[in-house]
Fold this protein.
Amino acid sequence: MIPRFPPPAGDDMHRRSILRAASAAAAVLASAALAGCTGPLLDSPEKVRHYDLCLPPLVTVSSSEDGSSHQWSALLWLVGHEVEGTRTHSRALPFWWHDAEPPYAEDTLLFPLYYSRQSEVEDTRFFTPLYGYVERGDLRSDYILGPILWREYSRSTNYFRSSILFVYDWKHAGEQDDLSILSIFGLVKLFTLESGRPPEGETVPALGREHSRRLEFINILGLASGFGYDDIGDRREIRVLSLLSSEVLSPLRSWRGRGDDPFVREWVFPFYMNAHNADGNGWLAVGPLWGQIDDTTAGTATNWWLAGLVSRTEAKEGATWRLAGFTVAGP
């Protein structure tokens, strides 16, 4: 009699592991098949569809009772076609994608080789990344190499805009022109120019002048600029090294009015400062060495030296000299 020995405990555990793995795989496949027969992955139909054929992941076919809603898909839904009322959809991924619900339609072929989208307000087409266009109303935008070279224009108004990424951006609208050169997303600009008559309601050039000009060299985040020049008809301004977009925070500034308001606000801080109103009232200083105070209301003009240690005031009565604030000679 041949003795029988029980199988090693390790072999029994191995067989049980295989059975558990096979059961889990069967459960996964059954779940996938059930999901495949439940509803297509890319569809959300309004009408109830019943499956005519369900062999996932190879092919599924379903349709509604009245036949107005139907679909088929194959190869894990990579290929398929759907119809729901006026909406149609077809796909052959990753090569083709189509959605349409008039007047809307969207198509993709071997993205990014071809892409299009049409609606009542838009017509977009891109033929490879090299060229594409977008039309919205009377505006058309053309793109070459994506956003690198861009141009937009209006068919009904005197408007256009063109740019080369990081090189220049030029906008023309009516009598206005805005130009920036060597701009990094508008954060850092080497040169900007604004020219033309401002829109109604803003500062309009006076004194019969038809155009205004504003230019600036080097602007960093709007916090600091190197040089700026404004000519708005009734005023002219020059500034150097402006901080926080404030002309007042410029160590060198010349702001002068024209016509019936010939005011002056200019300085090279702290060596020279001049502030006079249109009526002549104001003051001027060249450091602590010499200065002048004009008071047209009182009819006096005062010159001072050495931070006011010595001064001379002219009036109708005559001239008065003062030393450290004390009168030493006068009428």
